[in-house]
Amino acid sequence: AQASRLMGLVLHAGDGENVDTPESYDNLKELMTCLVENNCLIEPVPTNFIQCTATAAFDGHASPIPICASEFNAVVRHMDDGDHRVAKCFPDLGFGDTPAVAGSVLHSFSIDEMETEQHRNIASCLTRKLLPAGDILGPR
Q: What is the pLDDT of residues 80-90, one digit of tens each?
């Protein structure tokens, strides 16, 4: 079931923005393994995906580093200016250009107060940062 939810997340995200190298694929595989092993792709998928990868604070309290933080950061570091590109996935939360990569300092916010559509948009944006550049569906 988590594999189909992952595919749904990827299809909703659209074209990737990351680099296409053997190392980036290895890091992406490690991230996918972490997400599945830690039930990060169960409903509600967008919320769980965000909490497992890129949020360092939620529910008004500082949280521990997300469970898949190191794997997420390993994939994002392949992009030029990866921290700032990920931070832009959180524009409505006041992060602006503050690095939002797991392990970076973030302002506290309540993920439960975010609209479901916001969750989907943030999860889609983060997914685009992880996927290799190009159209995942090929020529149309």
A: 877 778 878 87
